[in-house]
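Technical note accompanying the year-one report. For the benefit of new consortium partners, we illustrate the data format agreed upon in the data management plan: each record pairs a sequence with a structure-token string. No post-processing was applied to the example shown here.
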Amino acid sequence: MPAARPTRWATLVGLAWVGLALQLGGCATGPGAGATSQVQQAEASVVEATYGIKVEGLRLTAAGSMLDFRYRVVDAQKAAPFLNGKIQPSLLDEARSAKLGVPDTPTLGRIRQTSRNGVIQTDRSYFIMFGNPGKALQSGDKVALLLGPVKITELTVQ
């Protein structure tokens, strides 16, 4: 017997629960106190000028089994690859030679924000959730974000 597909209503309810869990779980949507320490100052200005985003943080969440990458769009045109659903992001942990991807759930799909109808809002925070199998990454570890031609290095897990 084939598995039943979730209804649109069940999917919307699931998305609402994920949104509520992210808000109540301590995932910040605004810039955190240590946001500037995430990327070295020189790297932060290069990232902003080149990719049109300001990194707000990379934090452990879901009891350490996921990583929450937050960024604020400052230039919608330059930030387009971050919100393109066809380009799959990953975190590269060079110390362990591990590549962490975005989980793809049957009900919710990939756990990341994408642009709807190509509309990207400036001065708005967006997120990408990455799986952390076996809780391999810990606070203080350094990783790189890979997203098509984009490579942002020296991200520190909080």
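Partners are asked to follow this layout when depositing records. The chain has one domain: 36-156.
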